[in-house]
């Protein structure tokens, strides 16, 4: 069973940075896509970024391109999201997902002055 646990959320001022982590366990797949998805208060899920295990191809939503960076470490499935130049509209619960099938519990990111 794959388990995903996010961490690293918190309160930051506009223009600040945060780094989210997603620790994976029980991962056995050799080819997979890991993603970050967020949900702002009162809104639906919004895809943020994805990375493929083979070739480390990365993809970003236009709203975060140039500000966020997705990466994965050598431990299979572990994921990170470096978020810079944060804005109030980035406030949301951030979830990591494995192939869109397994989801973590989420971590809250709040951007406010």
Q: Number of helical segments?
A: 0
How much of the residues is beta strand, in percent?
over 45%
Instruction: Give helix % range.
Output: under 10%
Largest sheet: 7 strands, mixed
Enumerate the spans where pLDDT stays under 50 for 5 or more consecutive residues: none
Which whole number gives the mean pLDDT? 92
Number of strands: 11
Topology as a string of helices (H) and strands (E): EEEEEEEEEEE
Morphology: globular
Q: Termini distance?
A: 40 Å
Radius of gyration: 13 Å
Label the structural class. Answer: mainly beta
State the main characteristics.
113 residues, 7-stranded mixed sheet, mainly beta, 11 strands, single chain, 51% strand, globular, 4-stranded antiparallel sheet
Question: What is the element layout, followed by pairings?
Answer:
Elements (H helix, E strand, L loop, with lengths): L2 E5 L2 E3 L5 E8 L7 E7 L5 E8 L5 E3 L7 E5 L6 E5 L8 E7 L3 E2 L3 E5 L2
Parallel strand pairs: 2-11
Antiparallel strand pairs: 1-3, 3-8, 4-5, 4-9, 5-6, 7-8, 9-10, 9-11
């Amino acid at each position: 069973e794959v388990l995903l646990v996010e961490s690293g959320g918190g309160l930051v001022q506009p223009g600040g940075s945060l780094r989210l982590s997603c620790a994976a366990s029980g991962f056995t797949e050799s080819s997979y896509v890991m993603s970050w998805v967020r949900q702002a208060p009162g809104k639906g899920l919004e895809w943020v970024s994805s990375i493929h295990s083979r070739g480390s191809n990365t993809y970003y939503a236009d709203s975060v391109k140039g500000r966020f960076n997705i990466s994965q470490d050598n431990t299979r499935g572990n994921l990170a999201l470096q978020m810079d130049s944060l804005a109030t509209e980035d406030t949301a619960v951030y979830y990591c997902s494995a192939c869109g099938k397994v989801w973590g519990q989420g971590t809250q990111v709040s951007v406010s002055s």
